[in-house]
Amino acid sequence: MNMGTKLAKAFNEQINREYYSAFLYLAMSAWLNEQDLPGAAKWMYVQYQEELVHAQGLVKYLMLRGDKVDLMPIEAPKKEWTSPLNAFEEALEHERQVTKWIDDLAKMAEEEGDRAARLFLDWYILEQVEEEANGEENVVLWGRAGDAPSGIMMLDVHYGQRGFSPDEIPHLD
Ligand code: OFO
């Protein structure tokens, strides 16, 4: 039950974007670690792990449908930010862009009359609500901490508590 060339191509483009997201957050994690913020670095590392799973979910779906998986080069992310707040602001901006891409993909599935693909994408649509909510909270919290060393230290401890549990994307197993 192939999706067809147009939709499969769009899925492959989204796979590339999810891997780029993973690279971006891995780069942010490394930079935050260099800034002696191990908690924030861990938070971003968990985000990196989540993005890998998002990409895997799309790959598995293409395989399930019998469409071609076309892995493409992943753009190198930037490597430095001016402050932790700046990194979290850019992460939020990136997630807002990802939301638009996922919405466009869902619209294409609708236009193509592919109900199964459209239903599968519901998981990603709902995930983006969470991604943006987390991103907005990050910006508020790191903005509040400002340049105060004690505030930054407390926030970093809080961020270090984030653990990774793989998302339950349909058909991933
Ligand atoms: Fe894959 O949700 Fe973030 O980018």
What does this structure look like?
The model has no long low-confidence stretch (mean pLDDT about 95). The chain has helices at about 5-35, 40-65, 85-110, 115-145, 150-160. The chain is elongated and about 55 Å long. About 75% of the residues lie in helices and about 0% in strands. It has a single domain (about 5-160), classed as Ferritin (Up-down Bundle). With about 170 residues, it is mainly alpha-helical. α1 runs antiparallel to α2 and α3 (about 85-110) packs antiparallel against α4. The protein starts with a helix and ends in a 14-residue tail after the last helix. The chain has 5 helices and no strands. It binds hydroxy diiron-OXO moiety (OFO). Hydroxy diiron-OXO moiety binds next to α1, α2, α3 and α4. Hydroxy diiron-OXO moiety binds near residues 18 and 95.
Radius of gyration from CA coordinates:
17 Å
Strand content: under 5%
CATH superfamily: Ferritin, core subunit, four-helix bundle
Structural class: mainly alpha
Count the domains: 1
Could you tell me the CATH topology label.
Answer: Ferritin
Fraction of residues in helices?
over 70%
User: Which cofactors or ions or other ligands sit in this model?
Assistant: hydroxy diiron-OXO moiety
SS element count, helices? 5
Uncertain runs are none
Distance between the termini: 19 Å
Helix and strand run: HHHHH
Query: Per the principal axes of the C-alpha atoms, what is the gross shape?
Result: elongated
Largest sheet: none
Number of strands: 0
